Amino acid sequence: MTIFYQATMNPHPPDSLSHLTVNQYLKNHIRTVADWPARGVQFRDITPLLQDPKVFRVLIDAFVHRYMDKNLRPDVVAGLDARGFILGAVVAYELNVGFVPIRKKGKLPFTTVQETYELEYGSATVELHTDAVKAGDKVLLIDDLIATGGTMMAGKKLLEKLGASVMEGAAIVDLPELGGSAKLKASGLPLFTLLDFAGH
């Protein structure tokens, strides 16, 4: 994504949108926390993107502008537990489509479908209400970050169990070295991410 914002006033601060691509502007607002949640992990913290109203708007607009295109417009946005809820709900609101949460096991009160996926140590299960989507719905599946790809793959399978079609997976950050994005693409899922980080 290479949208540039033109300068209208001078001087501009060095981090102003007029001097940066949207991708770089957003990347400058992601905090890296060393050795969390375990030693050797470089955790990419997206909360600074949400705290500043201007940065948050730029972030959401980057997704909304893409999915306003009639060829990419979803019928429904599905968000993955938990930061996918933050992004997905706002994107769905702006696109004037419905939002559905894909939650960790035991959090949804109605009848659900389940999908279990492997973690580095053990496994996890996510659930979706059986009436969340209809057969034939085009769904945008969104999360904050793609690491190993397990959660997004499980979300895709859940939506497909109900007859929906996942048109694209979207995230702010891709961590390509962890192999998740390659695995998701190999499964046939198109991906849209705003930026990537080398390393864990």
In short:
The chain has helices at residues 22-27, 47-51, 53-67, 83-95, 150-161, 180-186; strands spanning 31-34, 42-45, 76-80, 98-104, 112-118, 123-129, 138-146, 165-174, 191-196. The protein is of the alpha/beta class.
Describe the structure.
There is one protein chain. The chain is α/β, with parallel strands linked by helices and 200 residues long. It has one domain: 3-Layer(aba) Sandwich (Rossmann fold), CATH 3.40.50. The protein contains 6 helices and 9 strands; from the N terminus they run αββααβαββββαβαβ. The N terminus is likely disordered.
Instruction: Work out the count of structural domains.
Output: 1
What string, H for helix and E for strand, traces the elements in order? HEEHHEHEEEEHEHE
User: Low-confidence segments, ≥5 residues, pLDDT <50?
Assistant: 1-12
Rg, Å, rounded: 17 Å
Query: What's the story with the biggest beta sheet?
Result: 7 strands, mixed
CATH architecture level-2 label: 3-Layer(aba) Sandwich
How many alpha or pi helices?
6
Helix-strand makeup class: alpha/beta
Sheet with the most strands: spatial strand order: 5-6-4-3-7-8-9
Summarize the SSE layout with pairings.
Layout (H helix, E strand, L loop, with lengths): L21 H6 L3 E4 L7 E4 L1 H5 L1 H15 L8 E5 L2 H13 L2 E7 L7 E7 L4 E7 L8 E9 L3 H12 L3 E10 L5 H7 L4 E6 L4
Parallel strand pairs: 3-4, 3-7, 7-8, 8-9
Antiparallel strand pairs: 1-2, 4-6, 5-6
Spell out the key features of this protein.
200 residues; alpha/beta; Rossmann fold; 7-stranded mixed sheet; two-stranded antiparallel ribbon; 6 helices; disordered N terminus; PRTase-like; Ade_phspho_trans; cytoplasm; Adenine phosphoribosyltransferase; adenine binding
